[in-house]
Amino acid sequence: MDTFGIRPVKQCSFLEEWLNAYTNLTDFEDQTLEAALIRYEKMGRGWNEEELKMHFISAVLNVADPNIEGVCKTFFERPLDGIIGQYELHVITDCMVATPKLGGSPDKPFFFLQEFKQAQLWGKTDPQGQMLAAMLLAQQQNADGKCIYGCFVKENNWRFATLTGSDYCVSPQFDSTKKPELLQIVYILRKLKELILARVTP
């Protein structure tokens, strides 16, 4: 953050608008989340990064479904790189929502989720730093001055972030093992579609 002049801001209208999300879920979607919670409670202790992603995070993303055909699409394990100032940055994005090119690969990115680091590895891995690097690269690549959205996950705790210019805001954490907070995570992820549509619609 010091290197790239990022300024932490406590209150941010972009983040507040994003977090103030609500949507209705179908019975099937609610049952999918219930099953994921039960699976986490029974089996989640000791999951590594990939296991957490496959057994739990994937269910959350499937219910949230932040995809709009021809407008935005979810991508996994995609590289981003570039030069910002005097520094070369290279990031493998765990999850990215971006406009798709005609061939299906990502074009303009809007949102990044950096995954699922085990608490015992905290300090050795840095999902927030990886997310922020990806957001900086997206800012440069998009070159439109618009807000970039992000999320980083530490085991069951999710935090959302926005980057507008050098202003960087981070939400309180949401505990995905608590049903009301898990629902809010889904609402927030789903609201990405509304936010993306608003910025790409003339």
Plain-language structure description:
By secondary structure, the protein is α+β, with helices and mostly antiparallel strands. It has one domain (7-183). The protein is built from five helices and eight strands; from the N terminus they run βαααβββαββββα. The protein has helices spanning 13-19, 27-43, 49-64, 127-142, 179-200; strands at residues 7-8, 73-84, 87-100, 106-117, 148-154, 157-164, 167-170, 174-175. Strands 1, 2, 3, 4, 5, 6, 7 and 8 form an eight-stranded mixed sheet that branches. The termini are far apart. The model has no long low-confidence stretch (mean pLDDT 91).
Helices, strands, pairings?
Blueprint: E1 7-8, H1 13-19, H2 27-43, H3 49-64, E2 73-84, E3 87-100, E4 106-117, H4 127-142, E5 148-154, E6 157-164, E7 167-170, E8 174-175, H5 179-200
Parallel strand pairs: 1-7, 4-5
Antiparallel strand pairs: 2-3, 3-4, 5-6, 6-7, 6-8
Question: Would you summarize the structure shown here?
Answer:
By secondary structure, the protein is of the alpha+beta class. 39% of the residues lie in helices and 30% in strands.
Main beta sheet: 8 strands, mixed
Shape: globular
> What number of domains?
1
Low-confidence stretches: none
Q: DSSP strand (E) fraction?
A: 25-35%
Question: How many beta-strand segments?
Answer: 8
Alpha-carbon distance between the two ends: 33 Å
The SS-based structural class is: alpha+beta
Q: Mean of residue pLDDT? A: 91
How many helical stretches?
A: 5
Q: What is the ordering of alpha helices and beta strands?
A: EHHHEEEHEEEEH
